[in-house]
Amino acid sequence: MKKNEHWEITGLIDFELAYPSLSRFRYSKMVFENYTSKYLIYYLKGYCSVSNIDELDWNRLKYYLYALCLEICSWSRDKDRSYYNRSVKLLSDLSKVNHLKFSF
After folding, report:
1. Best label site of 19, 31, 34, 84, fewest CB within 10 Å?
2. Is the residue at 103 inside a domain?
3. Would you say residue 15 lies in a domain?
4. Quick check: is 64 in a domain?
5. Which residue range is the domain that position 62 belongs to?
6. pTM of the complete model
7. Any long-range contacts for 47-56 (C-beta under 8 Å, 24+ apart)?
8. pLDDT tens per residue, the chain (104 residues)?
């Protein structure tokens, strides 16, 4: 912003952890946090029912989960080992599943 003939910084936008995604996959972080929960399927069913989604696109969800896990692994190994281990476990689990279809 220009003030009295001088430029001043009045704000800062940090895109460090930003990545492009479709809005219908904004729940991938929640899936990461709860993927071992027996209640996850109920959350996904509820989310889809209010979001007008008939079927989850597993390939895209898997892509966003891979991206999220890799991002977490990039910084968490030395800072939060349990978070890192959860990411590695999900990456391993994802690599074993070829297709998962949630139809509601």
Report:
1. 19
2. no
3. yes
4. yes
5. 2-96
6. 0.66
7. 48/102, 48/104, 49/104, 51/24, 53/24, 53/104, 54/103, 54/104, 55/101, 55/102, 55/103, 55/104, 56/101, 56/102
8. 777 888 888 887 777 666 666 666 677 888 888 878 788 778 777 877 777 666 667 778 888 889 889 999 999 999 999 999 999 999 988 888 765 554 44
